[in-house]
Specification:
- With 273 residues, this protein is α/β, with parallel strands linked by helices.
- The protein has one domain: Rossmann fold.
- It is built from 10 helices and 6 strands; from the N terminus they run E-H-E-H-H-H-E-H-H-E-H-E-H-H-E-H.
- It has a 6-stranded parallel beta sheet, with helices on both faces.
- Helix 7 links the parallel strand 4 and strand 5.
- Helix 1 packs across helix 9, helix 4 runs parallel beside helix 6 and helix 6 runs parallel beside helix 7.
- The longest helix has 24 residues.
- The protein is globular and about 65 Å long.
Length: 273
């Protein structure tokens, strides 16, 4: 259902790979609410994915960019401002990658070159994107910048590995840069901590399917879907959330405040007595 929440707004969506991606769902939701989108992803990710299909459906141009490259990001911001004819209203950073997770390196035996690469892609790139936008004065007043996080930034999920550290750093960047953006021109910066979601990136974590099922049984509302997250992103890009900034916002069906649920306890109690 569209009620034009983002009518007249425009911005950049990072990280759409295929129709399972949260960024993909977000771009569709933004478009349905009247917003205009420019899509971007790393060239290698674009070769793996189906971004051209999304581009055609929502009439969104694509500018390839490596989010760790300042040259690429500067060209992206310039290209967006040229395409939209001025400043932009929103940026969605939906990027995450761990080489150590991909290659099965245990957290106690990390390859530090891989660690640095994943940290740069997953977290530092958020700062780089905002710094490029800052230097070019690219954001409209009351704009909104979002990164996607996960609760492993606060609690230990052993197989999430060094991605947990990356997400902690991402959330810290949102708070630190969020202060400066707010003072500069009322731009707000937040992260959304999403339920485990079956995406290409998430599915690379060992035991992921089991954890999705566990989280669903722990959460009184069940896991938030990619579509749920897309809808939350729309509200954060809209004028309805103008005073929300420097926050890590949980979109997880209540999981983050649970100790244990009856459904989970029941599994441990079966067979007792």
């Amino acid at each position: 259902m569209s009620n034009g929440l983002l009518e007249g707004k425009c911005g950049i969506v990072f990280g759409a790979l295929n129709s399972d991606s949260i960024a993909w769902k977000a771009a569709e939701a933004i478009h349905s609410q009247g917003g205009k989108v420019l899509l971007t992803n790393a060239p290698i990710a674009m070769r793996m994915g189906e971004l051209n299909n999304l581009s055609e459906v929502i009439d969104a141009p694509i500018i390839p960019a490596d989010a760790t490259s300042l040259d690429d990001l500067n060209a992206l911001i310039d290209g967006a401002m040229e395409y939209f004819g001025g400043k932009i209203d929103f940026i969605l950073h939906s990027i995450g990658m761990s080489v150590n997770v991909r290659k099965g390196k245990h957290y106690t035996e990390l390859n530090y070159d891989w660690l640095q690469k994943g940290w740069d892609v997953s977290a530092v790139s958020f700062h780089k994107v905002m710094q490029c936008a800052w230097n070019k004065d690219a954001m409209n007043e009351w704009g909104s910048i979002l990164g996607l996080s996960y609760m492993a930034a606060q609690r230990t999920f052993p197989d999430y590995n060094d991605m947990a550290d990356n997400k902690s750093y991402l959330e810290s960047i949102a708070r630190s840069f969020g202060y400066h953006w707010g003072v500069k021109n009322n731009v707000r910066v937040n992260t959304i901590s999403q339920s485990p979601t079956p995406t290409t990136a998430g599915s690379g974590v060992k035991g992921f399917d089991g954890f999705v099922a566990y989280a669903d049984k722990m959460s009184p509302l069940g896991n938030a879907t990619a579509e749920d997250c897309a809808n939350y992103i729309v509200t954060m890009f809209s004028d309805l959330t103008r005073r929300v900034t420097m926050q890590n916002l949980y979109n997880d069906g209540g999981f983050s405040n649970m100790g244990v649920s009856n459904m989970v306890m029941q599994q441990f109690m079966e067979g007792e007595g």
